[in-house]
Fold this protein.
Amino acid sequence: MCAVHEYRPNVDDVRHLARLARMDIPDQQARRLTRDLAAILDLVAGLPAPGTSTPAGPAPDAARVLTEDRPRPGLPHERALAAAPQRGDGLFLVPRVIHR
Amino acid sequence: MTPLETAQPLAAAVRAGELSAEEVVSACLDRLRARRGLGAVLHVDEQGALESARELDLLRRRGETLGALAGVPVAVKDNICTEGLPTTCGSRLLEGWRAPYDATAVRRLRDAGAVIVAKTACDEFGMGSSTERCAFGPARHPLDTGRVPGGSSGGSAVAVADGQVPIALGSDTGGSVRQPAALCGVVGFKPTYGRVSRYGLVAYASSLDQIGPLTRTVEDAAAAMRVLAGPDPNDATSIDLPWDEAAPARPLRVGILREFLDAPELHPRAAEGVEQAADRLRADGAEIETVSLPEALRAIAVYYVLASAEASSNLARFDGVRYGRRIDPGRGLAAMYGATRGGGFGEEVQRRILLGTFALSAGHREAFYRRALAGREQLRRQLDELWGRCELLLTPTVPQPAFALGEKLDDPVSMYASDLFTVLANVAGAPAISLPCPRGVEAPPLGESADAAPKVTLPLAVQLMAPPGDDPGLLAAARRLEARGFSVEA
């Protein structure tokens, strides 16, 4: 684990992050983002020091609720498909994944 | 005051038949057309708005009772779904997308008789503090077009400040309702997390996002909240709390947050605004005490880690498959994802996705994401202790008045500092409201109309914050401060 204040990303780190996030980023932009990310990491180095608090989870208390698992009407099939860039036979179409 | 500036008298006149909804909406559409140059709105729904207005007039003629917001024109931030209308989130990636359903907040407004007239400009997916990150052009400050109106709900703030609509919806993840309201000199209200359903709000950071109204009076914010608040089966994080405005008026115990007043970024006039608000609340019978929250200024670090982490997950859905733009270089599915997201998202969105991906990645998750979660718990616990001593916190809303277009575009950290005083309420899930100060900051105008006046007075604002759940109490206190000069009119 790296301490908050120690880490400095380089351009290869940024390219790796962009691959993880599935975003193609040109080299010039990757260099700019590397500089920005370093500055932002300086800002977030101000995270409170680890104290006795334990992270309770991503959502506030009031939001940690369970609801009954019961089917309810959703968006009709055709309307859900209507905005797809490519569709056919009632399905979303994507570029071919498996080539024979 | 023009008839389009406050909602309550308009709705009363429409319900009484003194004004037709069509007259009101037509006047609003005229104003929207005349003021397009400010860039507040991305889309005007002339036909739909006029049809809704005529329907309301028909209902009234039939003797039916009209809702609390009958005939009131409302503009909606473009990251909130409106059935059949464009909802771009200020992004090229969603250009041309029309939402297939209304957000719960929009449906409730329509059910109360409000007429949705326009979608307002915002920073892409709500990520920004100036509305310059809107892919369809920046919104401009209504008092000086060479300056920003704040953001990300900048279009909503301009529309209200410029008298285009009396109520606009915004969304507030780290201050995106209150900060532009402060810079434009109007009222901006962020409710308790969960008070207003997020169903139909395009998610940026789900544990922080909250829809809220921008208005010219506290009473209009309250009127909107009476309609908007309440549980929703479509949002499991919405809360079922009674909306009780009946509590009797009593002296308030108000804490002034020392750490914010000591912040080096604070403009002296903004500090004066807080002192003046304290004096006026004291004259109203309030007990004022300076209080300390040692970690308060660290909320910005907590916020940017958590919000970016959640954004990196939430925005994974924009992949060119189900909606929006697809860029397909013809080299298979993975290449299509990369090209769509690389070419569709703007730079600020990409920056935050990368930060969030980093904060959640193996090797850094403990030092960043988990530590930010622990930091949020720590801030909440410290705030809980404060709420035992005072029932309201008084702070500045923004450190500085509206800045020049382009001034902070290449300096993200400086831009993020605009949210220094607003993120705490989001991190705590607490309600907060921004009210204009009686005195702003005089500055030379930078916009095209620079010859018209040698100086403009740029607004500043104070923020009141209350414990989670006490939204009605917060609005009641805000009314008292508004009555003592912290108002749009003043």
